[in-house]
Amino acid sequence: LTYMKKKDCKSSSCHIYCPYTNQCNHAADIISTTKPERHTIIKLANCKEQLHNRDEAAEDFAQKFKMAFETDDNKIHVLNAPTALGKSTLILDYMDNPNLKILIALPTNDLKNELYEKAIGRGIKAVKTPSLLEVKDEFPSNIWNHIESLYQIGKHHAVFIYIKEVLAKGKVNKLCADILKEYLQDLTKFYTSECHAFTTHSRLLTLDHWDLKKYDAIIIDEDIILNCMMRNQVGIPISKLEKVLDEIDSNSNLAKKIVVAIAAAKTKSWFTLSNIVYDNAYDGISMGIDIPSFCYAEKFYFKKQIDENNLFESHNHEDSIVFFKPFRLNNKVKYIMLSATANKKICNYYFGASRVEFYNCKRAKYVGVLNQYDKNTMSQSDIDKNHGIIDKIKKITGFVDTITFKKYGKGNCHYGKTTGIDTLKGKNIDVIWTPHQPIWIYKLFAYTMGFRFDEN
Q: For the whole model, what pTM was predicted?
């Protein structure tokens, strides 16, 4: 290229002379491809994506949403639509219809509460599912720890029973008792309501066909695969599995699955087991592990006690089997999922291509300027090693608002709590973090989905 520049060579158009023009991600010619002008963004010559103004993109989304809403089937309709198209407003517009009953599931309690308040403000009759997590600070530590442990080991159904037991025995003060009573009342109100309802992804997955059939539409806001699967890895030490065998019938399906899992872990890093039905007889298992999820899981990874390549952050430090906590969307119900990150291939693999209707909505043109600071990786360990790097960047930009890791305490909007949030809309923002995941998470995701990957 230097020689060509010195000789003032005129580079020819790629699409005329280059045999790789349909495969290469190129610009207009070889020089502009490898040496773009500084401070410019060049649209690749073979880029097929078309960008539209916001109003046109919003109208396209509204039409596709209407099509999905009015279709009479039990499929999962996935609308891949960019952010800031007014999705929440459109949903509330549909809720204004008194002849409809809509259930919307959001990724966090914050978003659930925010959209619920907007609905109430518009005079829409609606209910929302309560959350114990929002009031956990009002409970004695032993009460909350037990509730949290029940959630962690997959015994969600036992929480309701435990709360009634706590109230019956008078184990808590009046303030705590009133909060628990209100929680039970709100939960009952949700299950018996005949109006619109707001809930979270995690609560949605606990609802059965009879809870869902009363709704005209079930809308999932954001990508439920990323929010409920990728973030829910379960690790069970081999030693605890061996102890479970001492507590259960050796002829039970659970015992047989545990024996096969332990044997497979001795010879394989990746292995598949059949799912089994969780039996109420397993409720008495004293080991604090997620037996229900183990029963339903099929794809497993064996993590050795010392495995530097995987960098698995765990407090167990034992040989363990690791898997994603399984989740299912009811086969007898239609869902509409709205997401800017949903991927057609992944949705088809997870839910089955025959059940997925995928809609690519028009992409809107971006506004604003993106400046990238490339001197550091900005992973959590990198920020720790470069003391004061966040303050240095803040001094360069002069921006007030920041999104970074929670531990650095730069505002309420932090990594892990940004999905669907638009409180910083229209503002200048410093985004200072890179979410590095261990390699094994990506491989386990691929293995769970049925994709091929290099095990080594």
A: 0.84
